[in-house]
Please model this.
Amino acid sequence: MRRRASRRLFHVLGTTFVVITLCLFQFRNSSPFGHKAKNQRWTATSGLMRDIRNSTLGFEKIFVVGLPSRSDRRDGMVLQAALSDMQIEFIDGVQGKDVPDKAIPISSPDAKRLADGSIGSWRAHLNAAREIVQRNLSSALILEDDTDWDVRIRDQLYDFALSAHALTQPLRGLRGGYADPTYPQPSDGSPESVPETDFYRLPTTGPPTISPYGDNWDVLWIGHCGMHFPFHHSKTVPKGRVIRLDDETVAPKKNLWTFNIPFTLKESYPEHTRAYHHVQEGVCTLGYALSQRGARKLLHEVGLKGVTDAYDILLRFFCEGEKGRAAGRQCLTTQPALFHHHRTAGRVNGMSDISNHGDNGEFREKAITDMVRWSVRLNVEALLEGRTDFVDQFPDE
Ligand SMILES: *[C@@H]1O[C@H](CO)[C@@H](O)[C@H](O)[C@H]1NC(C)=O
Ligand SMILES: *[C@@H]1O[C@H](CO)[C@@H](O)[C@H](O)[C@H]1NC(C)=O
Model:
Protein backbone atom coordinates (compact mmCIF):
# COMPACT_ATOMS: atom_id res chain seq x y z
CA MET A 1 0.00 0.00 0.00
CA ARG A 2 2.62 2.50 1.08
CA ARG A 3 4.67 1.77 -1.95
CA ARG A 4 1.69 2.39 -4.22
CA ALA A 5 0.88 5.68 -2.43
CA SER A 6 4.39 6.93 -2.74
CA ARG A 7 4.44 5.96 -6.36
CA ARG A 8 1.29 7.99 -6.87
CA LEU A 9 2.84 10.93 -5.02
CA PHE A 10 5.88 10.59 -7.22
CA HIS A 11 3.64 10.55 -10.25
CA VAL A 12 1.77 13.69 -9.14
CA LEU A 13 4.99 15.52 -8.33
CA GLY A 14 6.45 14.50 -11.66
CA THR A 15 3.42 15.71 -13.59
CA THR A 16 3.39 18.99 -11.68
CA PHE A 17 7.05 19.48 -12.47
CA VAL A 18 6.46 18.88 -16.17
CA VAL A 19 3.47 21.24 -16.24
CA ILE A 20 5.38 24.01 -14.46
CA THR A 21 8.34 23.60 -16.76
CA LEU A 22 6.10 23.78 -19.80
CA CYS A 23 4.40 26.88 -18.45
CA LEU A 24 7.71 28.58 -17.80
CA PHE A 25 8.87 27.63 -21.24
CA GLN A 26 5.70 29.05 -22.79
CA PHE A 27 5.98 32.17 -20.69
CA ARG A 28 9.57 32.74 -21.70
CA ASN A 29 8.52 32.30 -25.28
CA SER A 30 5.43 34.46 -25.02
CA SER A 31 5.16 37.35 -27.40
CA PRO A 32 7.99 39.83 -27.17
CA PHE A 33 5.57 42.18 -28.94
CA GLY A 34 2.72 41.81 -26.47
CA HIS A 35 0.94 44.63 -24.70
CA LYS A 36 3.47 45.10 -21.96
CA ALA A 37 6.36 45.17 -24.37
CA LYS A 38 4.84 47.96 -26.41
CA ASN A 39 7.09 50.69 -25.10
CA GLN A 40 10.29 48.82 -25.60
CA ARG A 41 9.54 47.84 -29.13
CA TRP A 42 12.72 49.35 -30.51
CA THR A 43 14.97 47.55 -28.09
CA ALA A 44 13.38 44.17 -27.59
CA THR A 45 13.81 42.86 -31.11
CA SER A 46 16.38 41.67 -33.57
CA GLY A 47 18.73 43.78 -35.64
CA LEU A 48 16.69 43.16 -38.74
CA MET A 49 13.65 44.84 -37.19
CA ARG A 50 15.78 47.87 -36.36
CA ASP A 51 16.39 48.30 -40.09
CA ILE A 52 12.85 49.61 -40.44
CA ARG A 53 14.26 52.82 -38.99
CA ASN A 54 16.93 53.12 -41.66
CA SER A 55 16.91 55.59 -44.53
CA THR A 56 15.15 53.15 -46.86
CA LEU A 57 12.58 52.04 -44.28
CA GLY A 58 13.87 48.47 -44.08
CA PHE A 59 13.77 47.95 -47.85
CA GLU A 60 16.89 47.94 -49.96
CA LYS A 61 15.81 50.97 -52.02
CA ILE A 62 12.96 53.43 -52.34
CA PHE A 63 11.94 54.25 -55.91
CA VAL A 64 9.70 57.14 -56.87
CA VAL A 65 7.92 56.75 -60.20
CA GLY A 66 6.83 59.80 -62.19
CA LEU A 67 7.37 61.87 -65.30
CA PRO A 68 10.60 63.91 -65.23
CA SER A 69 8.62 66.88 -66.58
CA ARG A 70 6.72 67.10 -63.29
CA SER A 71 9.47 68.99 -61.56
CA ASP A 72 6.93 70.30 -59.04
CA ARG A 73 6.30 66.78 -57.83
CA ARG A 74 9.98 65.89 -57.74
CA ASP A 75 10.69 68.99 -55.66
CA GLY A 76 7.96 67.94 -53.25
CA MET A 77 9.13 64.36 -52.99
CA VAL A 78 12.77 65.30 -52.47
CA LEU A 79 11.81 67.67 -49.69
CA GLN A 80 9.44 65.21 -47.99
CA ALA A 81 12.06 62.48 -48.19
CA ALA A 82 14.80 64.72 -46.80
CA LEU A 83 12.60 65.76 -43.88
CA SER A 84 11.80 62.10 -43.23
CA ASP A 85 15.44 61.07 -43.40
CA MET A 86 14.69 58.91 -46.41
CA GLN A 87 16.83 58.21 -49.47
CA ILE A 88 14.90 58.02 -52.72
CA GLU A 89 15.73 57.33 -56.36
CA PHE A 90 13.57 58.43 -59.27
CA ILE A 91 12.38 56.06 -61.97
CA ASP A 92 11.34 58.04 -65.02
CA GLY A 93 7.69 57.74 -65.89
CA VAL A 94 6.74 56.96 -69.47
CA GLN A 95 4.29 58.61 -71.85
CA GLY A 96 1.96 55.96 -73.18
CA LYS A 97 2.26 57.29 -76.72
CA ASP A 98 6.00 56.51 -76.66
CA VAL A 99 5.37 52.80 -76.12
CA PRO A 100 4.99 51.03 -79.50
CA ASP A 101 2.28 48.41 -80.00
CA LYS A 102 4.93 45.73 -80.40
CA ALA A 103 6.19 46.34 -76.88
CA ILE A 104 2.79 45.62 -75.33
CA PRO A 105 2.08 41.91 -74.80
CA ILE A 106 -1.44 40.84 -75.74
CA SER A 107 -3.29 37.70 -74.71
CA SER A 108 -5.82 37.44 -77.53
CA PRO A 109 -5.87 38.29 -81.26
CA ASP A 110 -8.59 40.89 -80.81
CA ALA A 111 -6.98 42.60 -77.81
CA LYS A 112 -7.37 46.37 -77.79
CA ARG A 113 -4.62 48.76 -76.82
CA LEU A 114 -5.36 50.53 -73.54
CA ALA A 115 -5.51 54.32 -73.28
CA ASP A 116 -2.14 56.07 -73.26
CA GLY A 117 -2.42 56.98 -69.60
CA SER A 118 -2.78 53.33 -68.56
CA ILE A 119 -0.01 52.17 -70.88
CA GLY A 120 2.38 54.81 -69.53
CA SER A 121 1.60 53.89 -65.93
CA TRP A 122 1.97 50.14 -66.60
CA ARG A 123 5.32 50.72 -68.27
CA ALA A 124 6.68 53.01 -65.56
CA HIS A 125 5.81 50.53 -62.81
CA LEU A 126 7.23 47.61 -64.78
CA ASN A 127 10.43 49.57 -65.30
CA ALA A 128 10.69 49.86 -61.52
CA ALA A 129 10.11 46.11 -61.10
CA ARG A 130 12.68 45.37 -63.78
CA GLU A 131 15.20 47.57 -62.01
CA ILE A 132 14.75 45.49 -58.85
CA VAL A 133 15.36 42.28 -60.77
CA GLN A 134 18.27 43.58 -62.80
CA ARG A 135 20.07 45.06 -59.79
CA ASN A 136 19.21 42.01 -57.69
CA LEU A 137 17.77 44.18 -54.92
CA SER A 138 16.39 42.19 -52.00
CA SER A 139 13.37 44.51 -51.97
CA ALA A 140 12.26 48.02 -52.89
CA LEU A 141 9.44 50.35 -51.97
CA ILE A 142 7.84 51.95 -55.04
CA LEU A 143 6.00 55.23 -54.54
CA GLU A 144 4.10 57.37 -57.01
CA ASP A 145 5.31 60.96 -57.12
CA ASP A 146 2.21 62.58 -55.61
CA THR A 147 2.13 60.65 -52.36
CA ASP A 148 2.52 61.74 -48.78
CA TRP A 149 2.81 59.97 -45.45
CA ASP A 150 2.65 60.50 -41.71
CA VAL A 151 5.57 61.87 -39.69
CA ARG A 152 5.27 58.59 -37.74
CA ILE A 153 5.76 56.38 -40.80
CA ARG A 154 8.49 54.30 -39.15
CA ASP A 155 6.29 53.43 -36.17
CA GLN A 156 3.50 52.53 -38.58
CA LEU A 157 5.79 50.32 -40.63
CA TYR A 158 7.17 48.68 -37.53
CA ASP A 159 3.66 47.73 -36.45
CA PHE A 160 2.91 46.60 -39.98
CA ALA A 161 5.95 44.31 -39.83
CA LEU A 162 4.81 42.78 -36.52
CA SER A 163 1.43 42.06 -38.04
CA ALA A 164 2.99 40.70 -41.23
CA HIS A 165 4.94 38.22 -39.08
CA ALA A 166 1.73 37.08 -37.42
CA LEU A 167 0.15 36.58 -40.85
CA THR A 168 3.01 34.83 -42.64
CA GLN A 169 5.83 33.65 -40.36
CA PRO A 170 5.77 30.11 -38.89
CA LEU A 171 4.87 29.87 -35.22
CA ARG A 172 7.79 29.47 -32.90
CA GLY A 173 8.41 26.58 -30.57
CA LEU A 174 6.57 23.35 -29.97
CA ARG A 175 3.47 24.17 -31.96
CA GLY A 176 4.84 24.71 -35.45
CA GLY A 177 2.58 25.58 -38.38
CA TYR A 178 1.02 29.00 -38.91
CA ALA A 179 -1.32 31.07 -36.78
CA ASP A 180 -3.69 31.34 -39.77
CA PRO A 181 -4.99 27.88 -40.80
CA THR A 182 -5.78 29.20 -44.30
CA TYR A 183 -2.17 30.26 -44.88
CA PRO A 184 -0.34 30.03 -47.29
CA GLN A 185 -3.40 29.16 -49.41
CA PRO A 186 -6.91 28.13 -48.43
CA SER A 187 -7.62 24.48 -49.23
CA ASP A 188 -10.92 22.77 -50.01
CA GLY A 189 -11.77 22.03 -46.40
CA SER A 190 -10.45 25.23 -44.86
CA PRO A 191 -12.74 27.71 -43.10
CA GLU A 192 -14.22 30.69 -44.93
CA SER A 193 -13.08 32.99 -42.18
CA VAL A 194 -10.78 32.71 -39.19
CA PRO A 195 -10.90 34.44 -35.80
CA GLU A 196 -9.28 37.88 -35.85
CA THR A 197 -5.96 38.33 -34.15
CA ASP A 198 -5.62 41.14 -31.63
CA PHE A 199 -2.61 43.30 -32.46
CA TYR A 200 -1.78 43.54 -28.74
CA ARG A 201 -1.66 39.75 -28.41
CA LEU A 202 0.16 38.61 -31.49
CA PRO A 203 1.30 34.98 -31.63
CA THR A 204 5.01 34.37 -31.25
CA THR A 205 6.53 33.61 -34.59
CA GLY A 206 9.98 32.65 -35.74
CA PRO A 207 12.02 35.79 -36.48
CA PRO A 208 12.53 36.65 -40.16
CA THR A 209 16.01 36.39 -41.58
CA ILE A 210 15.76 38.09 -44.98
CA SER A 211 13.48 41.10 -44.60
CA PRO A 212 12.23 42.81 -41.44
CA TYR A 213 8.75 42.41 -42.92
CA GLY A 214 9.02 38.62 -43.05
CA ASP A 215 10.63 36.08 -45.31
CA ASN A 216 7.65 35.09 -47.37
CA TRP A 217 6.07 38.03 -49.18
CA ASP A 218 5.82 39.18 -52.78
CA VAL A 219 4.00 42.50 -52.42
CA LEU A 220 3.31 44.83 -49.49
CA TRP A 221 0.54 47.02 -50.88
CA ILE A 222 0.58 49.80 -48.33
CA GLY A 223 -0.45 52.80 -50.46
CA HIS A 224 -3.89 52.40 -52.06
CA CYS A 225 -7.34 53.96 -52.37
CA GLY A 226 -9.26 50.93 -51.20
CA MET A 227 -9.02 47.28 -50.17
CA HIS A 228 -11.52 44.65 -49.24
CA PHE A 229 -11.06 42.21 -46.40
CA PRO A 230 -10.47 38.77 -47.93
CA PHE A 231 -13.73 37.45 -49.36
CA HIS A 232 -15.13 34.30 -47.74
CA HIS A 233 -15.38 32.61 -51.13
CA SER A 234 -11.85 33.46 -52.26
CA LYS A 235 -9.91 30.29 -53.01
CA THR A 236 -6.52 31.98 -53.22
CA VAL A 237 -6.47 34.63 -50.50
CA PRO A 238 -5.67 33.59 -46.89
CA LYS A 239 -8.26 34.88 -44.43
CA GLY A 240 -6.08 36.00 -41.51
CA ARG A 241 -6.82 39.44 -40.10
CA VAL A 242 -4.93 41.40 -37.45
CA ILE A 243 -7.02 44.11 -35.81
CA ARG A 244 -5.54 46.98 -33.92
CA LEU A 245 -7.75 49.22 -31.82
CA ASP A 246 -6.69 52.72 -30.77
CA ASP A 247 -4.18 53.49 -33.47
CA GLU A 248 -3.75 57.22 -32.97
CA THR A 249 -2.45 57.64 -36.53
CA VAL A 250 -5.82 56.54 -37.97
CA ALA A 251 -8.03 59.52 -38.89
CA PRO A 252 -11.57 59.75 -37.50
CA LYS A 253 -14.17 57.76 -39.44
CA LYS A 254 -15.70 60.88 -40.93
CA ASN A 255 -12.43 61.49 -42.79
CA LEU A 256 -11.94 57.94 -44.08
CA TRP A 257 -13.04 56.96 -47.57
CA THR A 258 -12.49 54.13 -50.01
CA PHE A 259 -13.37 52.99 -53.52
CA ASN A 260 -14.30 49.57 -52.10
CA ILE A 261 -17.87 49.36 -50.88
CA PRO A 262 -18.89 48.13 -48.35
CA PHE A 263 -16.26 49.92 -46.28
CA THR A 264 -16.15 47.23 -43.62
CA LEU A 265 -13.36 48.84 -41.59
CA LYS A 266 -15.51 51.91 -41.10
CA GLU A 267 -18.87 50.18 -40.75
CA SER A 268 -17.95 47.32 -38.42
CA TYR A 269 -15.10 48.54 -36.22
CA PRO A 270 -14.63 51.30 -33.63
CA GLU A 271 -13.02 54.67 -34.36
CA HIS A 272 -9.24 54.56 -34.92
CA THR A 273 -9.08 50.88 -35.83
CA ARG A 274 -6.37 49.66 -38.16
CA ALA A 275 -6.49 46.30 -39.94
CA TYR A 276 -3.72 44.20 -41.46
CA HIS A 277 -4.54 41.37 -43.89
CA HIS A 278 -3.96 39.85 -47.31
CA VAL A 279 -4.73 41.86 -50.45
CA GLN A 280 -8.22 41.61 -51.90
CA GLU A 281 -9.16 43.89 -54.80
CA GLY A 282 -6.73 46.70 -54.13
CA VAL A 283 -7.26 49.98 -55.98
CA CYS A 284 -4.50 52.51 -56.92
CA THR A 285 -0.81 51.76 -56.67
CA LEU A 286 0.26 54.79 -54.65
CA GLY A 287 2.85 52.80 -52.74
CA TYR A 288 3.87 49.16 -52.53
CA ALA A 289 6.98 47.15 -51.87
CA LEU A 290 8.21 44.27 -53.99
CA SER A 291 10.60 41.61 -52.79
CA GLN A 292 13.15 40.27 -55.28
CA ARG A 293 11.04 37.18 -55.66
CA GLY A 294 7.89 39.28 -56.08
CA ALA A 295 9.53 41.52 -58.70
CA ARG A 296 10.62 38.51 -60.76
CA LYS A 297 7.16 37.00 -60.69
CA LEU A 298 5.59 40.37 -61.49
CA LEU A 299 7.84 40.78 -64.51
CA HIS A 300 6.63 37.41 -65.70
CA GLU A 301 2.93 37.71 -64.88
CA VAL A 302 2.28 41.41 -65.48
CA GLY A 303 5.17 42.49 -67.71
CA LEU A 304 5.07 39.64 -70.19
CA LYS A 305 1.43 38.55 -70.22
CA GLY A 306 -1.52 40.36 -71.78
CA VAL A 307 -1.81 43.99 -70.72
CA THR A 308 -5.57 43.84 -70.50
CA ASP A 309 -6.26 46.34 -67.74
CA ALA A 310 -4.85 49.30 -65.85
CA TYR A 311 -1.81 48.49 -63.73
CA ASP A 312 -3.57 48.43 -60.36
CA ILE A 313 -6.04 45.87 -61.68
CA LEU A 314 -3.20 43.79 -63.08
CA LEU A 315 -1.51 43.93 -59.68
CA ARG A 316 -4.75 42.67 -58.16
CA PHE A 317 -4.86 39.77 -60.65
CA PHE A 318 -1.24 39.07 -59.76
CA CYS A 319 -1.91 39.00 -56.02
CA GLU A 320 -5.06 36.92 -56.32
CA GLY A 321 -3.93 34.54 -59.07
CA GLU A 322 -6.63 35.52 -61.54
CA LYS A 323 -6.97 36.07 -65.28
CA GLY A 324 -4.21 33.72 -66.30
CA ARG A 325 -1.77 34.68 -63.53
CA ALA A 326 -0.52 31.89 -61.29
CA ALA A 327 -1.93 31.58 -57.75
CA GLY A 328 0.22 31.46 -54.65
CA ARG A 329 1.40 35.06 -54.31
CA GLN A 330 1.68 36.57 -50.86
CA CYS A 331 0.46 40.16 -50.86
CA LEU A 332 -0.17 42.00 -47.61
CA THR A 333 -1.89 45.28 -46.91
CA THR A 334 -3.23 47.54 -44.20
CA GLN A 335 -6.33 49.72 -43.93
CA PRO A 336 -6.22 52.68 -43.88
CA ALA A 337 -3.21 52.85 -46.20
CA LEU A 338 0.13 54.35 -45.13
CA PHE A 339 0.78 56.28 -48.35
CA HIS A 340 -1.92 58.54 -49.73
CA HIS A 341 -2.50 61.16 -52.42
CA HIS A 342 -1.30 64.63 -51.72
CA ARG A 343 -3.40 67.25 -53.47
CA THR A 344 -1.57 70.51 -53.84
CA ALA A 345 -3.19 73.87 -53.78
CA GLY A 346 -3.61 75.20 -57.29
CA ARG A 347 -5.29 74.16 -60.51
CA VAL A 348 -7.16 70.93 -60.00
CA ASN A 349 -6.33 69.63 -63.49
CA GLY A 350 -2.66 69.46 -62.46
CA MET A 351 -3.51 66.41 -60.36
CA SER A 352 -3.29 63.50 -62.75
CA ASP A 353 -0.90 62.70 -65.52
CA ILE A 354 -2.88 59.58 -66.31
CA SER A 355 -6.45 60.69 -66.83
CA ASN A 356 -7.25 63.95 -68.49
CA HIS A 357 -9.31 65.93 -66.03
CA GLY A 358 -9.69 68.78 -68.50
CA ASP A 359 -9.30 72.38 -67.54
CA ASN A 360 -12.52 73.47 -65.91
CA GLY A 361 -10.73 76.30 -64.17
CA GLU A 362 -11.22 74.74 -60.73
CA PHE A 363 -8.75 75.97 -58.15
CA ARG A 364 -7.94 74.26 -54.84
CA GLU A 365 -7.33 76.85 -52.14
CA LYS A 366 -5.84 74.57 -49.55
CA ALA A 367 -3.56 71.57 -49.99
CA ILE A 368 -4.68 68.31 -48.41
CA THR A 369 -3.42 64.77 -48.07
CA ASP A 370 -6.13 62.13 -47.86
CA MET A 371 -6.50 60.53 -44.44
CA VAL A 372 -2.98 61.32 -43.18
CA ARG A 373 -3.08 63.02 -39.80
CA TRP A 374 0.45 64.33 -39.29
CA SER A 375 1.21 64.76 -42.97
CA VAL A 376 4.89 65.34 -43.72
CA ARG A 377 4.06 67.64 -46.61
CA LEU A 378 1.65 69.76 -44.63
CA ASN A 379 4.07 70.01 -41.73
CA VAL A 380 7.06 71.03 -43.79
CA GLU A 381 7.42 74.32 -41.96
CA ALA A 382 7.51 72.72 -38.53
CA LEU A 383 9.92 70.04 -39.74
CA LEU A 384 12.23 72.62 -41.34
CA GLU A 385 12.43 74.44 -38.03
CA GLY A 386 12.92 71.23 -36.08
CA ARG A 387 9.63 71.76 -34.26
CA THR A 388 7.34 68.94 -33.19
CA ASP A 389 4.06 70.86 -32.79
CA PHE A 390 2.61 69.08 -35.80
CA VAL A 391 -0.69 70.07 -37.35
CA ASP A 392 -3.22 67.24 -37.21
CA GLN A 393 -5.25 67.48 -40.44
CA PHE A 394 -8.05 65.36 -39.05
CA PRO A 395 -8.47 66.01 -35.33
CA ASP A 396 -11.16 64.34 -33.25
CA GLU A 397 -14.02 66.60 -32.31
C1 LIG B 1 17.83 49.16 -44.67
O1 LIG B 1 17.47 47.85 -44.27
C2 LIG B 1 17.29 46.94 -45.34
C3 LIG B 1 16.79 45.61 -44.75
O2 LIG B 1 17.72 45.04 -43.92
C4 LIG B 1 18.58 46.79 -46.12
O3 LIG B 1 18.42 45.91 -47.21
C5 LIG B 1 19.01 48.15 -46.63
O4 LIG B 1 20.25 48.05 -47.28
C6 LIG B 1 19.10 49.13 -45.48
N1 LIG B 1 19.33 50.47 -46.02
C7 LIG B 1 20.37 51.20 -45.73
C8 LIG B 1 20.48 52.53 -46.39
O5 LIG B 1 21.25 50.81 -44.97
C1 LIG C 1 21.26 37.94 -55.90
O1 LIG C 1 21.24 38.08 -54.48
C2 LIG C 1 21.17 36.81 -53.81
C3 LIG C 1 20.98 37.11 -52.33
O2 LIG C 1 21.91 38.03 -51.86
C4 LIG C 1 22.41 36.01 -54.10
O3 LIG C 1 22.35 34.76 -53.45
C5 LIG C 1 22.52 35.79 -55.63
O4 LIG C 1 23.70 35.12 -55.94
C6 LIG C 1 22.46 37.13 -56.33
N1 LIG C 1 22.38 36.90 -57.77
C7 LIG C 1 23.10 37.58 -58.64
C8 LIG C 1 22.89 37.25 -60.06
O5 LIG C 1 23.91 38.41 -58.30
Summary: The radius of gyration is 24 Å. The CA atoms of residues 90 and 120 lie 16 Å apart. The longest strand covers residues 61-66.
